[in-house]
Amino acid sequence: MKYHQIDRNLFIKNRKKFTAEMKPKSVAVFNSNDIYPISADSTIPFQQHRDIFYLSGVDQEESILLLCPDAPYEHLREILFLRETNEHIAVWEGEKLTKDRAFEVSGIKSVYWLQDFEKVLFEVMTYCDTMYINTNEHYRSSVETETREARFVKWWKEKYPAHQVAKSNPILQRLRSIKESEELDLLQKACDITEKGFRRVLSFTKPGVMEYEIEAEFIHEFIRNRSKGFAYGPIIASGANANVLHYVENNQQCREGELILFDVGAEYANYSSDMSRTIPVSGRFTDRQKEVYNAVLRVKDEATKLLVPGTLWKQYHVEVGKIMTSELLDLGLLDKADVQNENPDWPAYKKYFMHGTSHHLGLDTHDYGLLVEPMKPNMVFTVEPGIYIPAEGFGIRLEDDVVIQESGEPFNLMRNIPIEADEIESLMNQ
């Protein structure tokens, strides 16, 4: 891995939190992701399943974590199963975790080779009544491919039909949404790398460059700072392309007088950053562009103040909608009749700001978190309002990543990334 080794105490704490929520006499199992094929002998670069990483720090394919806190023998309470490594594998594929190295990474003493999994599982199951299966229940999930985890769950339930079944996901949704201090440091590192990329792009951008050239500047800076690259598909949207919310082609020329909307973020150690900025191709905003830009910035700043302990997700978005409506009225994009006659299910402001304002951030860009429960300290959210005006040929989105505090306003992990219009103009014209 490119990133520096993470203190294993983070993963020890995470396992303790998880097992404390398990039912008596139960076992939980977590699998690594598959390596997905493209064709011939080509594969997509491996991405570890975030749940097994959260609980163990193991960032390697064909790994399994088993947790059985009530097992009668200590060596069966936490077990890692790894693909057996040897000199041949080291030559052809590179270094894999040895048993000693796996302990250094995870803090788990019991490490077996994968070939012993079914035998050890059988013994553990004799001590248990309940098995915790790990299913993807994120509110944005839409999975058509059968995952390694899904195949395992099917096999496990068929193999042991007399056991009760419980779900790991509700526990992880709560635990993963509240970050430990070590996780906040990793998220800060990801945001700092994103800052380096953005500052590089500010000095690079000029009329005539291609969107993909800007993408290349970002990825260059990310990788040279120990990131694997983008935390998600980057959006480099010049001109009218910014009005396509998930524009990812990044293949158009950036022209004088246009704006470019960036929605990019570096990952670091599997933790995501998520930044949106909008800059003028020519280095100067027009008066109208700056007027709309500052309106979006005011919405972002006011929305951020609402992210405090106890805030409810649904009500938060209602309040942000009111703030946005006021700004759109001032910009002349809405009038009072539009607001008075609006459909409550699709308020008038949605014509120009049609997406949500915030989402959880962490190991996933759209991270775990139960939206029906009040916000709590050390939850991390994006704040990303936008105004999109196809008739005027531009869209503006601004986004920071913030940490909810015990009291007061959130802490901005992107506080050092330029966002004021005057500062952006100054940096682009140095």
Automatic annotation (TrEMBL):
GO terms for molecular function: aminopeptidase activity. It comes from the Bacteria. InterPro entries: Aminopep_P_N, Creatin/AminoP/Spt16_N, Creatinase/aminopeptidase-like, Pept_M24, X-Pro_dipept-like. Keywords: Aminopeptidase, Hydrolase, Manganese, Metal-binding, Protease. Its EC number is 3.4.11.9. Its cofactor is Mn(2+). Residues 6-142 form the Aminopeptidase P N-terminal domain. It is an enzyme of class 3 (hydrolase). It catalyses: Release of any N-terminal amino acid, including proline, that is linked to proline, even from a dipeptide or tripeptide. The keyword Protease applies. It holds the Pfam family Peptidase_M24. Belongs to the peptidase M24B family. This is Xaa-Pro aminopeptidase. The lineage of its organism: Bacteria, Pseudomonadati, Bacteroidota, Flavobacteriia, Flavobacteriales.
